[in-house]
Amino acid sequence: MNDKNQRLFEIFLDVQRGLPRQGPGTDETTLEALSLCTGLPEKPAILDIGCGPGIQTVALATALAESHVTAVDVHQAYLKALKERAQAAEVAQRIDILIADMNALPFSPQSFDLVWAEGTAYIMGFEKALAAWKHWLKSGGCLAVSELVWLQPDPPGEVAEFFGREYPAMTDVETIVATIRACDYEPLGHFTLPEAAWWQSYYRPLEAKLPALYDKYRGDEDALGIIETTKREIEIRRHFGNWYGYAFFVGRDLRVRS
Ligand SMILES: C[S@@+](CC[C@H](N)C(=O)[O-])C[C@H]1O[C@@H](n2cnc3c(N)ncnc32)[C@H](O)[C@@H]1O
What we know:
It comes from Candidatus Entotheonella gemina. It is built from 10 helices and 8 strands.
């Protein structure tokens, strides 16, 4: 990363710092997705990719009392937050926390019964992520991913323009389900996250940070650009939320391995 990009990235991290979640979701939506993961063994090994501050990691470890979760992220600060959260919830002894890049994970093939990724598949590219993460799944293991999707065709210009710029690869639920099949997973179910999942632990606390961020970065055009885009993203949600959403998708690995 060159110096300018590194600086922009650090500003982005500052904007996101301290939020309970780094994307839409609630414990309820995590547990609803988990309920679609049928056929897990009694003591499942779970891999949480891009765990962030780890609300969902702790929710999974708490819900499955015999599970062992391995949580990976590239940012140490998030992993520290996860460690504290896991200790407070008394599940730390069943969570391994690892700084690692999702593109180069240090595991043996077929190590996990469940691969979990809330709001992170887009980082590699949805299809590429699904194909790559299969590598870590045991035969018949489950994959649960949440992803930004269009809910209706032909969105108004403002929202189409915004996501055309911010997430041009965004597609709809049917296309995602087709991709899941194409990557050799049996779709087990999907659902759209409720509106509260955007606000409770993500946009509301993010919006509350904005005035202090405008103050902190006064006169810094690069930083103000990032803060403006964040504000715009929240406004778009408020006005056009019925056109797009976050959806959870669960699938089962169909590959037969020797
Ligand atoms: C949208 S956030 C989702 C975080 C968390 N799953 C949640 O729902 O709150 C994306 C996460 O992926 C992490 N991340 C970004 N690039 C990564 C990479 N190459 N490998 C692993 N994690 C990465 C970020 O640090 C961030 O925590």
